Amino acid sequence: MRKLIDLFKAHPVLTPAFLLAAALTILFTVRTLMFTIYWADPAHRNQALEPWMTPRYVAHSWGLPPEEVAAVLQVDFSPPRRITIGEIAAQNGLSLTEMESRIRAVAATWHEREK
To answer: What's the pTM value of the predicted model, to 2 decimals?
Structure first.
């Protein structure tokens, strides 16, 4: 502990900057690992639509670009906001089943083009 205090006295600006950089590196590493582990689980791929999901979540789950999902769901992301699939369905007068069939069709087309 004494060495850390001496280091801080010798470099009062660099020491906190280094500690902040180290903390941010750890934070983003953990965040990236959690994201990777979550989406690597097959249970999170091609999930059936639920009202709480956002278009970006659906895009990740179905392996589609967010722009494709926004187009099929008729959503404008400017300005960006966290609108849910349930809200989109209510605005457009669609059921979740109809929306899911649209997503399935776009996903099939998209993945066929990407092969």
So the answer is: 0.74
Write out the H or E segment, with its range, that includes residue 37: helix 14-40
Residue 74: its pLDDT value, please? 85
**Nearest residue to 87 (alpha-carbon basis) of 102, 101, 99:** 99
CB of 107 closer than 8 Å to CB of 63? yes
Give the Å distances, CA to CA, from 39 to 26, 27, 45, 67, 84.
20, 18, 7, 19, 19
Structural contact between residues 18 and 12, judged by C-beta atoms closer than 8 angstroms: no
> Taking Cα atoms as reference points, which of 22, 30, 28, 64 lies closest to residue 47?
64
Cα–Cα nearest to 59, from 68, 51, 50: 68
Taking only the tens place, the pLDDT of each residue in 32-43 is 999 999 988 888
Backbone conformation region of residue 99, classed left if phi is above 0, alpha if psi is from -120 to 50, else beta = alpha
* Residue-wise pLDDT tens digits, 81-112: 788 999 999 988 999 999 999 999 999 999 88
